[in-house]
Amino acid sequence: MRRGILTVLFLVMWGIAAAQEGSDMEAIMKMAGAVSAEEMDSYEVERLSDFLEHPLKLNLVSSSRLSSSGLFTRYQVASLMDYRARHGNVMSLAELAAVDGFGEDFVARLAPFVSLESLSLGLMKDPVRNDLAVRGAFKVNDGNDWNAGLKYRFEARGFTMSLAANRAYGSEGAKPSDYAGSVGYDFRKIRGKVLLGDFNVRFGQGLVLWNGAFITSLSTPSAFMKKPSGLSRSWSYTGGAALTGAAAEVGVKGFTFSAVLAIPGVKDASLRPDEVRLMPAANIAWQCRHGQVSVTHMAELSGFRANDQVQTRIPVMKTSADAAFCVRGVNIYGEAAYDWVERNVDVLAGTDFKAGEDVRLAALCRYFPDELYGTAFSGAFRSGTFSVDAVYYPVPKDASVKHSIQVKSQVDWNWTLGQSFTIRMRASERFRTWGNMFRSELRGDFAYAFGPFVAIMRLNAIHCDKIALAGYLEQGYKTDRFSVYTRQTIFKVDDWDDRIYVYERDAPGSFNVPALYGRGWSASLVASAKIASLLRLYARASYTGYHLMPAEKRKPGKAELKLQLVFRF
C-alpha cells in the first residue's frame, strides 16, 4: 500500500518539472547560510527581504549603518571603510571581492542586498523615504478569525522613525497583540547613533546579549559564525523580541562604545510596579587591521517597589569577551561568557576557511556546562553541502536514560542541467538516546524555469515513529508588474513526531512554514500586481482538507484569505 501511494505520487508529479524556490527566497537562504527555507526564522526573512526591496548603498552609508545591517562582520565594515577612504567608491562587485575580508563567495551571496550607487552618478545622498504596508487576513477554521498588520517607516538626513503593529490570530479584541516603534538619529561626523523605543542588540556570538532570532541550523559553513550588528532599530511584525528603552553608540578611531538601558516587559499592561525590571548593558569594541575584540556586560535589576521601601536584586548578570579575526581568508572567532549569578563559564569557538577551489570547511565547539557540550562540522563544495552536529546534554532529557546524546547529519546535493533544470536532493539522519532514537529524511526538489514560467516539484519522506510522505506541485508566472503561483500538496503523516515542515509562498512580511500532520491535501494561490508605480497589491487564498483520514479521526478543514497593500513613496 505504501509503495503504491509513493509510486502513484511520483508518477503524477513527474509530469511537471520543477525549479528552485523563487529567486528572492533563494538569495535570503544563501545570505543566512541556510540550505532550505524551512530552516529560516520569520524575523530574519523579514529583515533580509527589506534589503532586497531597498539595497544597502555601500558607497554612501556610514560605518554605523553598515554594522547595524547585520550583513557584515565588524572587520568587514572596518576594511570597507578603510578601502573607501584610500581608494574612493567601489565601482564593481569584482572590486568589492578584492577588499580584504570579502572574497568572491561572500560577494556573490551579498550582491542582491547591496548597490554600488555613488554621488558621482548624480544621485541624492540622503533621499526622503517613506514605506507603508497594510495587510489583512481572514481564516475559517472551526470558527472565524482575522489577522491584520501595519508597518510604516520614514527616513531623511540621518533621522529615522518606524512603527509596526500586528494583530495575530486568536487575539482578543481589535488591539494589536504585538507592536514596535522607534525613533533614531545617525551622526555622520562622529560615527554614532541614538535610538529610542524598540531596538535590537546583537554583540559577540550571542552568549550574553543577542535579541531577536538567528539561524540555529549548522548546515553550511556560512551559518556557523554570527555577524553582530550592534544596535539596530526594530521594524518587524514580530517586534515582541525587541528590547524597549534607550541606546546610544559612538565611534572614536578604532573603538566603538555602545550603551543600553532597556525595560524588559514594559509593554505588558498587567505589569505591577514591583515587577518592573531594568536591564543596563554596555559593549566596548576595538577594530584592528585583521579583526576585532570586544567586551560586553549586562545585568537585570528587579524587585523595585512603589512605596518607600525599595528592595533591589540582580537575578541576571553576565560578562563576556569575544574576538573575531580574518587572516588570508581564514576566519577565527570565539566568545567566553561568565555568569556572575550561576558562577559558570560558557565558551564558544569556531573557524571557517577555504580548503580548495570550490571547497569551504567550518568547525564549531560549544561548552555550556548547564546546557550542553557540542561540536559541529560542515563543508560546502561545488555540488552541495554536508554537516555533522554532535551534542551531549549533562542533564538527561529522559528519566529512563543515563546519558543524553544527539547526533545530526545532513547531506545536500545540487545539480544544474543546462540553464533551466535543477535537481536538489537531501538525506538527513538524527540519532539520540531518548524517545524515538532515529529520524531519517529523504527529500527531492525538481525544478524547471523557462522565461517568466517556473514549475516546482517536491517529494518528501520521513521515518521516525512511522513513515510519513508528502509532495507538492507548484506552477508560477512572474514579471515585474504581475505574478501568480499555484500549489497543490498531498500528505500522509500519522504521528506528530513524523511531521513535515514545508515553506509556502506568502505576502511580504509573512513567513509561512506550516507543519503537515494528518492525511489530506491542500491548495493555495498567491498573486501580486503593481497597481501603480507606488502601490502593489498581494493576495493569498489557501485551503487544507483532511478528507483522506478515517471519518472518526478526521480533522476540520481550514481556509484562509489574505490581502496586503504595500505603498512606497
Describe the structure.
This protein has 569 residues and is mostly beta strands. It has seven helices and 29 strands. The strands form three sheets. The chain has a 24-stranded antiparallel barrel. Strands 1-2 form a two-stranded parallel ribbon. The longest helix is centred in the first third of the chain and has 14 residues, at 74-87. The radius of gyration is 25 Å and the shape is globular.
Number of helices: 7
Number of strands: 29
Q: Cα distance, first to last residue?
A: 57 Å
Helix- and strand-based class? mainly beta
Helix content: 10-25%
- Uncertain residue segments: 1-22
Q: What does the main sheet amount to?
A: 24 strands, antiparallel, barrel
Beta percentage is over 45%
Shape: globular
Mean pLDDT: 84
Gyration radius (Cα, Å) is: 25 Å
